[in-house]
## 1
Amino acid sequence: MASTPTRKKSSSQQPRQIRIFMDGAFDVMHYGHMNAFRLGRSLGTYLIVGVNSDESIKQCKGPPLMNDEERMTMVKGCKFVDEVVPNCPYIMTTEYLDYIFQTYDVDYVVHGDDPCIVDGKDVYASAKRLGRYRSIPRTEGVSTTEIVGRMLLMTKHHHMRHRQRSRGNSMGSLSGLSISGGGGGGGGGVVGGGVLDDGNSSDDSDNEIHNENEEDDLSVFTAAQYNDGERLVIGNQSKFLTTSMMLRLFSAGVKPPREGMKVVYVDGAWDMFHCGHVRFLEVAAKRGDYLIVGIHGDSLVNKRRGSNLPLMNLHERVLSVLGCKYVNDVLIDAPLAITHEMIASLRISEVVHGTESDDIGAVDERYRYPREVGILTVIKSPIDFKLVNILSRIQKKQAELQSKIERKKKAEREWFNSKYDQNGGGKNGSK
């Protein structure tokens, strides 16, 4: 049930609270949504986010991939969000907006600068008439459509192959992909103990390309068309431009641990940052005063999991974890093995691992030292949700999603070209 908050009375020393309202489905929520929340909150001092109900989304555009509880968990876990309103309608009627203004004492409704038209009408027309509407720039280079598209391109192959051996089966989709919860084997890409199998069970280990150190030196998202004569890189390069400014903005509020604080450390890939991650980090944070999250690099994740993983590159995964309210700091490109020197440098008091993981084996050699010195704790994961759950849902809806993605991509291209006048005749565009 939605609560009915009251605005705190401001004193002469305390500035008046400016309350912002945003709404959306936030299906397969990502760092682009988090950045929208950050931008929205920057227009005021308190951000209220309405999450569309499963039923209203289903009526307007088909069932979402993630259910109400999963989407609510993600929004509640974002550090830029102060309050969440469940069961919002997908279409914001004048009556509902009036209810939001009155019940939650909202000053402004905020939405992205892309148009929101339903049945030929501007959804936020009434708020605009009242002068209580503000827009924020869209986070370019990332969208749910683009991210789901990456998952539709999942194959069992690693991202680098000999060109002559990659024809015909190196670029695939989820059709014919078997996602199971069984043990590993057969050389398939492993996700949470499941094997992604493209129907060819033969061993293809001789097709892999490694450097002298047996490690790939290119990101999973190096451009799909890159070809140096010997290697063909598959998988799409992220179009999101990660700047130091963006990392700094997402690092808002990050401070070093004070003397005497209990520092808890947890590491992983955190790929496709999801509700299972958020719920686990919430539990881990309660074990101490300061939570540091280690995020493994692209090459390490791909070496351990194979296929086109990670689906998100290191910068994208760093932003996703930094946007979580339970995290105090992150260790970027964290080492696999947790050593004495690392524990001493970061002043780690406890290393935590969950019972649910996207890796094979919950506790392995990387935790040898913390286990030896008695600071490793394995805690029960609050929910059994992993990357494989998202992939299996997408597999079941592949044909529908593929068609939907093509329509969305066309609309997004048109919006981008219109914004930057890149339709072939504009001052900033060229054919």
## 2
Amino acid sequence: MSKSQPQQVITPQNTSNIIETLKKFKRMKLLHRFLEPSLSIIGCFLATICVICCFFYLDYRAYIKGFTFSNFKSSERFQWLKNNGGNSEFGVKKVEFWSELGNGCDVFDGDWLWDESYPLYQSKDCKFMDFGFRCSESGRPDSFYTKWRWQPKHCNLPRFDARLMLEKLKNKRIVFAGDSIGRNQWESLLCLLASAVPDQNTIYEVNGNPITKHKGFLIFKFKDYNCTVEYYRSPFLVQQGRPPVGAPDKVKSTLRLDQMDWNSGKWKDADYLVLNTGVVTFKPGQRGGDWKTGGTCHMESLPELGISLVPPQIWPKFTIATDVLTARKNQSINSRAINLLNITVMSSRRKDGHLSLYYLGPGAGLASIHRQDCSHWCLPGVPDSWNELLYAVMFRRDVTPSWNVTSQTRAV
């Protein structure tokens, strides 16, 4: 006799439990449908992040190990850059800047060209350089930034000849007055000129002051040529004073636009005077912010070729400066030549040439990634090109004495 199977008794409580279970199952099914595309998106996002991290890691390894650029040099892009600054561009032969045909050439309209013969000196061979500009000796692993030469579109610049420049400066004074970027250029010229002097002991600071961490003014004499290369710190070129009584707290100082700097009396007898100012208004080539909001430049290793990074708001100020200088030059035929060395555009493309982390000096390690210097320049580097332009325009008047050169750009 078989036993009867137990019968499940359906009660209102059981029915309620079954309905609740079905509701939960339905909600889980809807949740799965909702999460299915989201999980795919999250997966793609994480995969993308991994790929980007791999690129950064590989780029960092190549940067630290001093990538040799072998692949870059063999590329079509590099060959175009190498040949683009030669004697022809798009089938048009370039003229020499010092020739009569170079009379109308705008030397500031051009681009950066890779040149294996650069730099013109090595920082380790120049003792007249502040340690803050010695990037290679302060840990920068690459030297790419030293290999670029400025090439005007329509003419060729003469190569800087330090001996010829020293002969030009014989028994003369060349004075740089301005901010720390002016000092950057001044130290570049010191190193360029010193490279042609066999006995470095014949070059000295007349007051015995050290070049490192020295403020105020410095005068270096080249004894064999009886010339001085001088620097006077004057960030605004005019007198700076205290804020007036009752001024808002954000006003920290005032500028007397009608009064030249206190040291200006020491400039007036200079044979060549190079002025610069305005660095706080223009500092290109930074990622993630400007010079005072966390901008960085330590991962930059190549210039921006063929484009300008100059902010639009800079040009009105530049136009004002140009108009003032032009008006001053045209006031009298007896006035000394005043022209503008327009390095703004060419420098804006060299985001790779800044000090970034490498300004603490040899053996001091790298600066904090949050305290990068994306304003000043490594030496050798971009300021050497400024001095090549200075050299070219200073000699143009001498090599073309019978031509009308009043319209030519001269950085004095």
## 3
Amino acid sequence: MVEELREQLHGALNVKTDRICGEICEKLDNMSAELAALREEVKEVRGDWALCKEAALSKSQGPKATKWGRRPKAEGEELREARQVRKQGLGGEVLSM
């Protein structure tokens, strides 16, 4: 009788242990998948950060010269040059636009 109870208890413990082990393995697999996804996301963020850093550095250095040795004109600079030429051509008068 005691031996039968011991075997039943042992069997119940084995079933419960197997179930708990299965749940732990499932959660471990889920966590591993989430960790892999987070690692990929971190790689993307690092890439985005590098692009932003590069853009910020290039913007702070100003426009670079082209292959012909001239830098690109800043916004509005062409308009100022056109007004200067017009002013010189009209004997000092500046036409308003």
## 4
Amino acid sequence: MVLDIHYIPQRSYSEQNANLPRHLPIVGLGCSSFSSFFSSEEGNDELTVDTVSREHPAVIRWVETIRHAVLHRGINLLDTAPWYGHGVSETVVGYALDTILCDDEGYRYDKVQKRKRTGSLDRSELIINTKVGRYEADPLKQFDFSYETTINSVQRSLERLNCDYIDVLQLHDPEFAPSISILLNETIPALLECKRRGWTRALGLTGYPLEVQQEILVKAEREFGRNVFDQSLVYCHNNLHDNSLFSEFCFASRGSPTDTFAGFCQHSNIHLMAAAPLSMGLLTHSGPPNWHPAPLELKEACVEASKICQSEGVDVSSLAIIYSLSHPSIGCTLLGMKDEEEVDVAADLASRFSAVDFNNGSQDSILDQVLTPKERQVLDKLLDKTHGPFSQLKEDYRWDGRKEATNFWALVDDLKREPCNNQS
């Protein structure tokens, strides 16, 4: 069966790297929404990886959302992680895949107790990505970058997803690793072993601080004598308030003393994907969750941006999504969509790009093609470098990812010193 992609455009992605898909949907389905991870609705908060079942009303709704995204809107990239719902997201995605994919011969991963599939799509028609490194809610058990845990995590992910391989296996939030050395000596060798065993087609990494990703990419190539990673997934760096992926010249690169992170990846043959075009809730009318790490100045600027949009009858979230999708260098942008309505909103916005030639045109010219005159006018107001809501932000246009990691490990140290954690 050929996947119907009538509703959502696909973009050329990797013709030079055979490990990666040649084409990606312009929007990918971020699967953290299929758990109580970022929001807890009534009846969802009791779901754990041990209690989740196909019969739960929330699970039924999530499975139908995934089916709708894949089968009716052509969103054929699913991005999940053990961290999302601490196993719930991967399990729910697996339930959905059981109804989407057909049974295939040559199922390579023989340790999986294979569940029967009832769908009609071939596995090759979907792109399924997951991650390693971040796991449990308990801070004392949240991160584990050891070789053994990494291998075991991938085995567990394959079982939950009921798949024999992952398309891109990603190192998750490596800025929280106790040291670069543990990544070089344990995590990355485990990832390479997973690739050798055929459990993944490609390797990637994802985290917030771009400078940490760049450091890992450089040191891994130096350590192993070649590019280890095929892909970098960045988040919250390609949106209305933070365009540092393309604008900050702070990375050493081949043939150039300094470069942007996007330029560094291009010169290193590492392909980019982006996530969180709404900046984890900042660019919405309802605002971010309480735990959001953004500085107060940025939160206030985003509220002002939302008010400008409301006064002009433009939806700030729709404008933010279109802006992120419009960059020629980003093949796919991941977006969380918790129900069929949100899938349709995202797919309808993506469909505006159906006639766009991303190989010929700047981001500005692409935006001129897909925005209404009113939306273009409002976007110009938001991006105005003199009077726009983000114009007065200096370092406050983003948050400090390294500091977040430092604070986390300080919390872990405090917990370890508590008497109840010192008892055998």
